[in-house]
Specification:
497 residues; alpha+beta; 4 domains; six-stranded antiparallel beta sheet
């Protein structure tokens, strides 16, 4: 008796429809849950806010993964039914190992697992690892540069020149050569280098000294090329390699800012750069850095390739982010890949999206070099007032004005304007733009309007209104704004010229 090795086409089609319908129902349920969870009137307090953060950063993401998996399975079942029908119609039978029973190939669409695995989607900065072939004289010369940069005792010129000379020398090394140098240095020598580079570098005839970007350029050459073992060593021996993760909190959230500090630093499971980075990856966390996340959203909205070109996983426990310095030059800032988290292991900062965890690393890198902080951010009643924090603090990137943070991502050509014509022209031309709200709730404010908050512009609707996305996440209402609304209900905008 002949066995039937093919699949039942009708059953496959029915299964595909059932899976697709289940995906749609679950997506609808997820949308309703997100709406209920973010409603501050139903549940208030620290536990409520913690759950909202967990929902936005973990639970809703996992639910979305299931929704996509069901939808993908539904498509696969329908596709396999077509293949089975075609094979049967041609007079053949589908074997147990045919394409109908195997995983979808890449040319038929990526599975959810492939969609979310992203380390390989980063663009490598140092693909040629080279060889550890430094000759003894060259190794001695480099060690001498390390000692010079570590010393800040030169009264006349400081050690700024020495730090930059060492940075330039390290830039010429392949990763294997850099690791050869690190292997030759003692812990005390690396610790002294960290201490020396942390000084202002000034001397009698050198008033500027070492800038935060120059200091980070030196660290970038070390972190981006070092082996995982040496990355851990550098992080342990150079305190300023890791920023302070304390948060003032987001003043625009219901209930006001919630100061907190990290309970731990975690290695995220999500990729840095997924297959399809997009505005949906913008999900602000506990830090009050709506301007930073809105700026990142504006950049990737204008250029879908922005994240892939400006954030990369180095594959050694570090991530590099390309930012503009004060001279308008793009510079790599490298940070370790661990991120500040609460006691449950949930990231305090921006949450990961299906396109990767790249916004969290934009935050971390910017915290290392940001010099525009002031002491005008809102503080929760009963907590110390705000102060101006120096580079190396997440608190430095909280609050602040649109152009101040925007310039690090887009360059110095940022215009701050309250003229609707300027904003609409920028949007029509596809230039990045963000809009900030008033400090007091205006009359007639729409649902989703939050005071003292920044939104990024995603385009124009059919009526010519600009569309504003909340950096808290795509589950929040999109605001459609007329020119008159902009004049009456918004503070101003920051646009790339």
């Amino acid at each position: 008796m002949a066995g039937i090795y093919g699949a039942d086409v009708a059953q496959l089609r029915a299964l595909g429809k059932a899976l697709t319908a289940s995906s749609a129902r679950l997506a609808s349920t997820g949308t309703a849950l997100s709406r209920d969870v973010r409603d501050p009137g139903q549940w208030k307090g620290a536990d409520a806010e913690a759950f909202r953060n967990d929902w936005a950063g973990t639970h809703s993401l996992l639910l979305g993964k299931v929704v996509e998996a069901l939808a993908e399975a539904g498509k696969a079942a329908g596709r396999h039914a077509d293949e089975q029908e075609l094979a049967s119609g041609a007079g053949g039978t589908a074997s147990r190992t045919s394409a109908a029973g195997g995983p979808a190939s890449k040319d038929r669409g990526d599975s959810t697992a492939e969609y979310l695995t992203g380390g390989e989607h980063s663009v490598a900065r140092h693909p040629d690892r080279g060889e550890a072939n430094l000759a003894a004289p060259e190794l001695d010369r480099l060690r001498g540069l390390v000692r010079a940069a570590a010393s800040s005792s030169n009264f006349f010129v400081g050690n700024d020149t020495d730090v930059n000379e060492l940075r330039d020398a390290l830039a010429g090394l392949k990763p294997a050569q850099l690791n050869q140098l690190l292997e030759s240095l003692t812990d005390d020598e690396i610790r002294s280098l960290g201490s020396g580079a942390a000084t202002d570098g000034k001397g009698l005839f050198n008033g500027e000294g070492t800038t935060p970007f120059e200091r980070q350029q030196l660290l970038d050459q070390l972190l981006s090329k070092a082996s995982r073992e040496h990355v851990r060593r550098l992080k342990d021996l150079i305190p300023w390699a890791q920023p302070d993760g304390t948060a003032m909190g987001d003043a625009a959230r219901p209930g006001g800012p919630d100061p907190s500090g990290p309970d731990q630093w975690v290695e995220p499971k999500w990729p840095v750069i997924g297959q399809r980075p997009s505005t949906d990856d913008i999900k602000q966390g506990q830090y009050g850095d709506c301007v930073v996340l809105a700026a990142a959203g504006a950049m990737i909205n204008a250029d879908p390739g922005w994240a892939r070109e400006h954030v990369t996983d180095n594959g050694n426990g570090t991530v590099s982010v390309l930012l503009f310095d004060k001279n308008g030059q793009e510079q790599w800032v490298s940070v370790t890949s661990d991120l500040p988290a609460n006691s449950k292991g949930t990231q305090m900062g921006a949450k990961a999206g299906f396109g990767g965890n790249w916004p969290a690393y934009v935050e971390k890198a910017l915290a290392q070099v940001y010099t525009e902080d002031d002491n005008n951010d809102g503080a929760k009643e009963g907590t110390p007032p705000d102060q101006a924090y120096p580079p190396g603090n997440y608190r430095a990137i909280e609050g602040n004005w649109g152009p101040d943070a925007f310039q690090y991502l887009a360059g110095p050509n940022i215009a701050r304007t309250s003229a609707a014509d300027d904003v609409w022209e920028a949007v029509r031309q596809g230039r990045p733009a963000l809009v900030t709200t008033l400090a007091d709730l205006p009359q007639g404010a729409p649902e989703g309007y939050h005071t003292s908050h920044a939104y990024f512009v995603t385009g124009l609707d059919a009526e010519g209104n600009i569309l504003l996305r909340n950096p808290w996440g795509s589950q929040y209402p999109v605001l459609a704004v007329t020119p008159q609304d902009f004049k009456d209900k918004y503070q101003d905008a920051s646009v790339v010229r």
